[in-house]
């Protein structure tokens, strides 16, 4: 028994020396391989030697050994001290979402990757309808079109906001610094005294004159927008949905009602992540 223990301890020391130099690369962090793995590997080695003599004790120790899947994941996550992968490993890298395994795809979808959510919906179609990836594309296109139906009217408030902001933003420049525009606006809406010509020779002099009536509306509009932003943040703190979140939720519910055979959770995640901008022409088959 002493010889078995000493043999096992030597094997453990060799494993420790071999694996302590391995580093797992995770983003920008470098982590040592857990000693639990070494203990499990040591337990597996000792179990093979001791089980015939210790019976249940050896079997209990052997139950701590890592599974083949766990070891494969560790090998895939870890590289040697060179901190580089081989050409063969690079060739096995997935280059499109449709080649991702389910667990990786699910993680990306939960983290908000919209292309991953699209691929997850395609696989849901494949599972429910029993069709291939390519045969699932027409149904996905149908769901995509249904999700984007009525997009023009739904986004009309945003378009009006963009148009109004650009109009007022660029329009304020000549209203303040351009003499002819300032004279026209003053005559039509303000009717204040016009300075002498020698005091309106440059745009800055014109601006110092027009600022007398431009400052109140600009300041008031800025304060009003600030108050709206504050009110919106308080609504969000209370759990209320402003227009964008309300519309996305309603659209997701409508999509789930139109396609009840598919998982409502998957449809909801896809719908809420689908942009309100016009669809792109990128192909999912690449």
Summarize the structure.
This protein has 286 residues and is mainly alpha-helical. The protein has 14 helices and three strands.
Task: Report on the architecture of this protein.
With 286 residues, the protein is mainly alpha-helical. It has three domains: 2-91, no CATH class; 97-147 and 244-273, no CATH class; 154-240, no CATH class. It has 14 helices and three strands. The chain has helices at 2-19, 35-54, 56-62, 68-77, 87-91, 102-110, 114-129, 137-147, 151-154, 156-177, 179-190, 203-237, 243-258, 264-273, and strands at residues 23-26, 29-32, 78-79. A three-stranded antiparallel sheet has the order 2-1-3. Helix 7 runs antiparallel to helix 14 (264-273), helix 11 (179-190) crosses helix 12 (203-237) and helix 13 (243-258) packs across helix 14 (264-273). It is elongated and about 90 Å long. The two termini are 61 Å apart.
Features:
single chain, 286 residues, mainly alpha, 3 domains, three-stranded antiparallel β-sheet, 14 helices, 3 strands, elongated
Task: Give the secondary structure arrangement, pairings included.
Elements: H1 2-19, E1 23-26, E2 29-32, H2 35-54, H3 56-62, H4 68-77, E3 78-79, H5 87-91, H6 102-110, H7 114-129, H8 137-147, H9 151-154, H10 156-177, H11 179-190, H12 203-237, H13 243-258, H14 264-273
Antiparallel strand pairs: 1-2, 1-3
Helix pairs in contact: 1-2, 2-3, 6-7, 7-14, 10-11, 11-12, 13-14
Task: List low-pLDDT spans.
Answer: 15-39, 45-64
**Helicity level:** 55-70%
Q: From N to C, what is the helix and strand string?
A: HEEHHHEHHHHHHHHHH
Shape: elongated
Helix-strand makeup class: mainly alpha
Strand order of the largest sheet: 2-1-3
Oligomer: single chain
What's the Cα radius of gyration? 33 Å
**What fraction of the residues are assigned to beta strands by DSSP?**
under 5%
For the terminal residues, how far apart are their CA atoms? Answer: 61 Å
